[in-house]
TrEMBL record:
Nuclease SbcCD subunit D C-terminal domain: residues covered: 266-356
UniProt name for this protein: Nuclease SbcCD subunit D
Species name: Inmirania thermothiophila
Record-annotated Calcineurin-like phosphoesterase domain positions: 1-218
GO MF terms, alphabetically ordered: 3'-5' exonuclease activity; endonuclease activity
Length: 387
């Protein structure tokens, strides 16, 4: 069986004020092209289809377009599960009707889990598709008061899955969870507050392939056929070093799996540039990727006027500016001549003056500045005494 595994689309995502719907449509067009090329027996979308429980209209329209092309145009079966960002009820609306059109949507769980069954030339494959398992929902669905956290919720559901599965058939598990020891990203919403959220990989043993969602870096788990497909795009600065992809799985008649990460090319990449403001302005003309989403790390030793405005004239999609000198420990950077723990007003003004005029503040200017600062300090103290 050939499986195309993807997850964490987060349709409707906004990154530093930028709506990413067009960027998501760009990579989803590639996903549809891959499905057309490889003709998988099954497409798996392992949760976090939307970025929030009530998605914007354009996100719903994009999902409708992609699923119509996969299930209607290409006539491929799709299994789609709810993640922790999704509303299970909204996502699963019409699920029984959609199943007749090859779209299998799983929003919640019942007391007795049931598999989806698909066929290839080697026979039947059971797909056990689980949504994000909120412990409270699982406790009520299974009537099991012992379920209090993520590991207990997954263990309780999988115990019933294992009791119901057919050991003679190959099996695929779809889950949305954080596996212990895997690499996380800043853009992932925590699965629990004040309790355990990571689950041991040992809970997932016994399936021929485990298609995971939630963690945004594409990665395998413990060298087994357990894999995170990762997110469609880079959704935080911590993901700048990621290469986003979907996973193509080839399962043979015995259940052995070969997995391949197939890269996705973003419309605009998310990357970091570094240098002084003047260096970045000069270098932009020769940068073929000026339209990327950019985090600029400015190395100027002093204040910089209108850094964002100037950068956006040459890098139109700058999202954020980092100033490492402002984060330097006391005794370094601009704070070198200041009392420990704060930036000195005189040092800041002197650097500002030089930035504006192109010349250092002379001795007469420093004396005048000192008099002004002293007068301001006396006024401040007088106001405090009067209060």
């Amino acid at each position: 069986m050939r499986i195309l595994h993807t997850a964490d689309w987060h349709l409707g995502r906004i990154l530093h004020g930028v709506h990413l719907t067009d960027d998501q449509a760009h990579v989803l067009e590639q996903l549809v092209a891959l499905a057309r090329e490889f003709r998988p027996d099954l497409v798996v979308i392992a949760g976090d289809v939307y970025d929030r429980a009530v998605p914007p209209q354009e996100a719903v329209a994009l999902l409708d377009e992609v699923l119509t092309r996969l299930c209607g145009e290409l006539r491929l079966p799709v299994v789609l599960t709810a993640g922790n960002h999704d509303s299970p009820e909204r996502l699963a609306f019409g699920a029984r009707l959609l199943a007749g059109q090859r779209l299998h949507v799983v929003g919640g769980i019942g007391p007795e889990p049931r598999p989806l069954r698909f066929e290839d030339r080697h026979g039947a494959v059971e797909v056990w598709a689980l949504p994000f398992l909120d412990p409270l929902r699982v406790r009520h669905a299974l009537d099991d008061e012992a379920v209090r956290d993520q590991p207990q919720a997954l263990a309780a559901v999988l115990a019933r899955v294992r009791a119901a599965r057919d050991p003679a058939r190959r099996s695929v598990l779809v889950a949305h969870a954080a596996v212990l020891g895997c690499e996380t990203s800043e853009s992932e919403r925590p699965l629990a507050i004040g309790g355990a959220e990571t689950v041991p990989a040992s809970l997932l043993a016994g399936f021929d392939y485990v298609a995971l969602g939630h963690l945004h870096r594409p990665q395998g788990v413990d060298g087994a056929a357990i894999r995170y497909a990762g997110s469609l795009l880079k959704y935080s600065f911590s993901e700048i070093g990621h290469e986003k992809s979907v996973t193509l799985v080839e399962m043979d008649g015995a259940g052995a799996c070969r997995m391949e990460a197939v890269a996705l090319a973003p419309r605009r990449d998310l990357r970091r540039i570094e240098g002084t403001l003047a260096e970045l302005e000069r270098g932009a003309a020769g940068d073929p990727r000026r339209d990327d989403y950019v985090v600029a790390r400015l190395l100027d030793p002093g204040p910089v006027l209108d850094a964002m405005g100037r950068l956006r004239r040459v890098y139109p999609n700058v999202l954020h500016i980092e100033r490492p000198i402002l984060d330097a420990p006391a005794g370094e950077g601009l704070a070198a001549s200041a009392p420990a723990g704060r930036l000195g007003d005189e040092a800041l003004f002197a650097a500002f003056f030089e930035q504006v005029t192109g010349a250092p503040l002379d001795e007469a200017g420093r004396r005048l500045l000192a008099e002004v600062l002293e007068a301001l300090e006396r006024r401040r103290r007088g106001e405090e005494d009067a209060a």
